[in-house]
């Protein structure tokens, strides 16, 4: 039997909860500039499936990669951290 690959998990901040069963999560990562070696904060926003509408704007959440739920949603909510 084939085993499924390990799914990515990220931690981010909820920036919008205006849609039904969908939240927008901003995830921060730190990268170095290739030439100047300065550390930069890079942000990326993901649309996340929130089945029970439990996450609210401003909360920190853990999300996991999953099968496509819709055109833009490929992540689902695992837990609300705070």
Write the layout of secondary structure elements.
Layout: E1 9-19, E2 22-32, E3 39-49, E4 60-65, E5 75-80
Parallel strand pairs: 3-5
Antiparallel strand pairs: 1-2, 1-4, 2-3, 4-5
Question: Nutshell version of this structure?
Answer:
The protein is built from no helices and five strands. It has strands spanning 9-19, 22-32, 39-49, 60-65, 75-80.
What is the number of helices? 0
Coarse morphology: globular
Q: In CATH, what is the homologous superfamily?
A: Nucleic acid-binding proteins
Distance between the termini: 38 Å
How many strands appear in the DSSP assignment? 5
Please identify the oligomeric state: single chain
Q: What is the CATH topology classification name?
A: OB fold (Dihydrolipoamide Acetyltransferase, E2P)
What does this structure look like?
By secondary structure, the protein is mainly β. It has a single domain, classed as OB fold (Dihydrolipoamide Acetyltransferase, E2P), CATH 2.40.50.140. Helix content is about 0%, strand content about 55%. It is built from no helices and 5 strands. It has a 5-stranded mixed beta barrel with strand order 1-2-3-5-4. Strand 1 and strand 2 form a beta hairpin. The radius of gyration is 15 Å and the shape is globular.
